[in-house]
Amino acid sequence: ERDRRPLFSPTQVPALVEDVVDALSRKVGTWTVFSLSAEIDRQLRQFSFDNDDELRAMYDNALELALRDYCK
After folding, report:
1. Phi, psi for 6 (deg, rounded to 5)
2. Measured by CB atoms within 10 angstroms of the end CB, which terminus of the chain is less buried, N or C?
3. Is the pLDDT of residue 53 over 70?
């Protein structure tokens, strides 16, 4: 059966990170790298990827951006 989830592109990473931070801010006051990682993974699962390597690359990019911009 065909995967009907929308495709995800690298240009969507910043918006995904903002959504992740917003979601975590609503759920908890502070978060760890583990909760950040889990929320990124959860949100990326809404999208389709050509292969696991592409998913991993998008995950890594999103986590790096989130840690750089939102964690001090």
Report:
1. -70, 150
2. N
3. yes
